[in-house]
Amino acid sequence: MGSTTAPWKQLLLNALQSNSHLRHSSYFQLATIGPNGMPANRTVVFRGFQDNANKIQINTDCRSHKIEDLKHWPFAEICWYFTDSWEQFRINGAVDVIDGSNPDSMKLQQREKAWFASSPKSRLQYLGPNPGLPSLGDQPDQGPSSLDPSAGPAAAFCLLVLDPDQVDYLNLKSNERISFSKKIANEETSWNSEKGDSLVSLTMTRSSSWA
Amino acid sequence: MGSTTAPWKQLLLNALQSNSHLRHSSYFQLATIGPNGMPANRTVVFRGFQDNANKIQINTDCRSHKIEDLKHWPFAEICWYFTDSWEQFRINGAVDVIDGSNPDSMKLQQREKAWFASSPKSRLQYLGPNPGLPSLGDQPDQGPSSLDPSAGPAAAFCLLVLDPDQVDYLNLKSNERISFSKKIANEETSWNSEKGDSLVSLTMTRSSSWA
């Protein structure tokens, strides 16, 4: 199913391209729901699409609160605003939490792939007694100062994989709105898309975002 | 209670100041929970502190989905990332939804004040049959083309007021983390603050944000 390329994906790749000069263009906000029933929202880093398909990857620490949230209720909504092109993507779906104890060997391979795809400096974050700080720049290194580059995923390393069900796209320069919804029938995945102007409820949701 | 100035507020004012050259520095992501129990997340615009106290104001359209969300479950978490100073504020609390039918005359006055504080162009958004598009720049005007500047709030105009309970602050340049929690005793509001390093759970939450 993941091999069907979603129609919203090219829009997102274009936005990433046109904002790539901005370090923060790969950051988005991930909303989850805590075990206490409260909304939670934090910035995370886009780590690419899984196997170049449609699923969105995020690296995180098994000891983080968002893991607790997602194990309790495995749904999230991404809000990704591109500050240069004035585009917003709202992407919701179920999130698969893949830690070292995952019984699925394919998923363990994906976790290992994500580990080796991340920089040695960001890998170091997972080796301390507590997670280190994000590596966004010239901060002092956290945790251990050296890493065996051939060493596999640290126990604390966790891969999150969000499988998009709906994507709401807004372009504030072209005034374009598009709502994409996944449909699954007979094991086949397809995507419906509707222009905002034909979708009052979307229009409401969208416009009110900045109203 | 709102008159006690919170210790996190100066940090937020400083961040707004040091990022004020960026149009998007007044945008943040607001997470709510839909009636279907799903997390929702969208970009909104900071409209200032209520009466120069600690409560955060957001203007929105009564017809937007977030109103449905908040009437069903009146709690939200803001994630506000400042892209130039590398500071993140996570601010959660209850949200008061103030529309034209509010029985409290003080709140109706606050709604009117917020209406007149917003630009004529953004007021126009509320006058169409559906909400218009956000006014972030040189987009074509939406809805009616003229507005009586002395006319009071449109029926669709809604003021949201978030009353912060907890604020988690992260500075990625100084590696500083501070967690602020509101305490209310005998009608008195006070704020506790703890440095991240003494707060493992905060450390975990924070660091994992970008891990």
Automatic annotation (TrEMBL), chains A, B:
Domain Pyridoxamine 5'-phosphate oxidase Alr4036 family FMN-binding as annotated: residue spans: 6-98
EC number(s) from the headed UniProt entry: 1.4.3.5
Classification via Pfam families: Pyridox_oxase_2
Single GO BP term: pyridoxine biosynthetic process
Keywords: Flavoprotein, FMN, Oxidoreductase
Classification via InterPro entries: Pyridox_Oxase (IPR000659), Pyridox_Oxase_Alr4036_FMN-bd (IPR024624), Split_barrel_FMN-bd (IPR012349)
Pathway it works in: Cofactor metabolism; pyridoxal 5'-phosphate salvage; pyridoxal 5'-phosphate from pyridoxamine 5'-phosphate: step 1/1; Cofactor metabolism; pyridoxal 5'-phosphate salvage; pyridoxal 5'-phosphate from pyridoxine 5'-phosphate: step 1/1
Cofactor: FMN
An annotated Gene Ontology molecular function: pyridoxamine phosphate oxidase activity
Listed Gene3D superfamilies: Electron Transport, Fmn-binding Protein, Chain A
Enzyme class: oxidoreductase
Start and end residues of each stretch annotated as Disordered: 127-149
Name recorded for this polypeptide: pyridoxal 5'-phosphate synthase
Species assigned in the record: Helianthus annuus
Lineage: Eukaryota, Viridiplantae, Streptophyta, Embryophyta, Tracheophyta
